[in-house]
Amino acid sequence: MTPADEVTRAVEAVLFAADAPLTVGEIRAHVGECDVRAALDRLIEDYAGRGIALVRRGERWHFETAGDLAHFLRREREEPRKLSRAATETLAIIAYHEPVTRAEIESIRGVQISKGTLDVLMEAGWIRPAGRREVPGRPLTYATTPSFLAHFGLASRRDLPGLEDLRAAGLLDPVDLAMEQVVLENDDEED
């Protein structure tokens, strides 16, 4: 067995035994100084098309059940927890603008948010306090978590849908589309 095979086996064992997704640095702390990224690439190839897959969520790696087989593992139907419109809007603002303060969220939404809205999102594990802004009053900022990425199946925030994706999916509010048209018409008149 080559040293590369031993590294791959060691990385596989560490990830399999881990109770939470691991960063490359955390994996390296277990297996020593070696080419962990090459081992991860090899494991991705080895597990392609199988019942489990090695996936990256943010900067963390873990094994998960192949998406097309998840229905075999459900024992009882999960009731999806519905977020209020305010919580959904707040989560979207945080995801697209992080790190963002409460005042910035309220400015974007145009209305105040209740403390409960942020609490619900933190309890779900989708947002976290991300430090304080270096301005008078030092307001707390919020950002999304690796759990947010995992829940929505995103490798990183760059995978969030853009304006064209939302329009194609029919997810833009007719008011948003009308406002966009007015802006475009005004721009044409100015030229």
Automatic annotation (TrEMBL):
Transmembrane spans: none
Key word Cell division present: yes
One BP annotation, GO: chromosome separation
Alphabetical UniProt keywords: Cell cycle, Cell division, Chromosome partition, Cytoplasm
Keyword field contains Cell division: yes
Pfam families, per database record: SMC_ScpB
Protein name: Segregation and condensation protein B
Organism: Stakelama sediminis
Lineage: Bacteria, Pseudomonadati, Pseudomonadota, Alphaproteobacteria, Sphingomonadales
